[in-house]
Amino acid sequence: MKLPQERWTAPPVFDCALPPRQASAREGHVDLAGTRIFYWDTGGAGEPIVLMHPATGSAHMWLYQQPVFANAGYRVIGWSRRGHRGSDPVDPAAPGSAVQDLVSLLDHLKIASAHLVASAAGGAISFDAALAYPDRVRSLVISSSVGGAQDADYLAASARIRPMGFDGWPSEFRELGPSYRAGDPDGVARWLALEHGAVTGHRLGQKVLCHVTFAALEALTMPVLLMTGDADLWMPPVFTRRYARHIPQAQLVIIPECGHALYWEAPALFNGEVLRFLGQKPGPLAP
After folding, report:
1. Average pLDDT of the chain?
2. Rounded-to-integer distance, Cα 260 and Cα 266, Å
């Protein structure tokens, strides 16, 4: 087990910046067996980045990332998992797999492999995808994610840090750090508007393809960037370090004064770390 090397960024500046103008993107649906999945795609010949949204989000949450990554030369794709804005709800009789839905989306877009950039629940699905389909995943960015590891001691520790009733607390308290809530109330309101419209149907019950454990993650061969905020109530740095110890090519970045939604609270830092990480891995797409 390796000792993780971590880097702390400077604190973010909560400057109440509005989301930038979005890049041109085509919207569509992938028709699966009995259901439809919504996506948007900026297109182009750049390496593809697929954005994996949190449980409180959808394809529409990435306002601060879409134009920045597109302007950096990447083909950027956002999608909504079943039960989230634009996609059909989960059918309890045929829930399918979020990873299989992702692969179907890649097939539909004729993408052989992609970088996955994930927040929170999107990170657990990304780890599942990387284990089940390693040839389809060029690299992973896992931000603020409990990660899906099923090790008993980790699950117990994760439950221990959150009191009874935590899931019923206001979403902005659970997801956004106190510095951001104090420093950018208009941004909190914009996030809440997107969050309130993100879950549009039954979203639970999809199957995982792999039994994710820390031992299983030791087999990952693609580069992995792990990020969290030091005010994250779900995923404090001590948990992210444990993931980093078990992932061979993991880099670990901690952003001060931020909670569970780094992509929204500190987009300049988040975007910069993602682009810096991806810039270390140039090369052609898999055929």
Report:
1. 94
2. 11
Task: Quickly tell me which residue has 């909190």 as its tokens.
Answer: 188
Q: Please, what's the b/e burial string for 219-258 (b: 16 or more CB within 10 A of its CB; e: otherwise)?
A: ebebbbbbbbbebbbbbbbebbbbbbbbbeebbbbbbbbb
Owner of token pair 């083909």: 75
pLDDT in tens, 82-138: 999 999 999 999 999 999 999 999 999 999 999 999 999 999 999 999 999 999 999
**CA dihedral for 279, 264, 60, 33, sign (positive or negative):** positive
Which pLDDT score, from 0 to 100, does residue 60 have?
A: 98
How many CB atoms lie under 10 A from the CB of residue 94? Answer: 10
Question: Chain centroid to CA 92: how far?
Answer: 24
* Domain annotation for the chain: domains and CATH numbers: 6-11+20-279 (3.40.50.1820)
Lowest mean pLDDT among 58-67, 95-104, 200-209, 275-284: 275-284
CA distance 183 to 136: 40
Place of tokens 């950018």: 184
How far is the C-alpha of 160 from the C-alpha of 235, rounded, in Å? 12
User: Closest by alpha carbon to 150, among 133, 176, 136, 131?
Assistant: 131
| Strands, sheet with 6-8, edge to edge from the N-terminal-most edge strand | 6-8, 250-255, 224-229, 137-143, 114-119, 48-52, 75-79, 35-41, 26-32
Strand 114-119 to strand 48-52: parallel, antiparallel, or no bridges (unpaired)? parallel
Supply 108's token pair: 């539909």
HEC profile for 67-82? HHHHHCCCEEEEECCC
Token readout for 145 is 């994610």
pLDDT at 205: 85
